[in-house]
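ok so for the tutorial part 2 we go from a plain amino acid sequence to predicted structure tokens. step 1 is just haveing the sequence, like this:
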Amino acid sequence: RVHGYGKFVSQYEPAQTKTFHHGRTEAIRALTPEAMQFCKTFVDKTKSNQEKLEALTKATKRHTEATREASAGQGPERHLFALRNMASSNKLPDPVLFSSMGWRSINNTVLSTSNCGNPSLAYFGFGPVVQNGFGIGYIIKDDSIAFAITSHHSQTQRYINELNKFFLDIRTILTPDEEVTVMTRQRNILAATRKNSMLVSNTEGYDLWGELEFKEPQQLGSRKRSVGLAIKVVSEKKASFKLTD
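step 2 — the prediction. this is what the tokens look like for a chain of 245 residues:
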């Protein structure tokens, strides 16, 4: 979110290429010009809800096209990866493209995202791929979306706050079939946000990965740890998630 962090960053989402023999994935880069324009329109207070909805429609349409292209083997990154490996195996110099600022920028994947298609799982997650990044795993279910979000720094909570704001904001331009509200368990640590307007909220945390005991953020000191947050947003007036350090 431009409005929460003030800049656009590289984002990765895998597309399945199972139609090909030994096919695995191709990269989808969600930061399209249409997506950037939607973000700018969304935070522009002079824009109407209709204009924001139109910008969202254009962004999602382009993202759908990119997903289809990637699944059909028309994405550029696996192709370039193969060419780079061919150059290496033939003892040729690394093409200059791979040392360019553009290549380094696109591969500094701050938002690494992936969807797990197995609805029987409670959560699905993984670690960030860069030091200043987030690992965002999600599962789309019949009546909910479950997220597991991790980072190597103390920004996971802030990201969840921004995700919460987005859910609240997007409700102003979208009319869902069911109103989404939240009932929190244990203590609410997003005290700055009114409880009756929350779409996602935090509860007392536990160690999602089975390695560390939960501690308050101020007790972390300067040590670097992977911080994970699992949340579930459901359409039946409840949501739950677990904050881990």
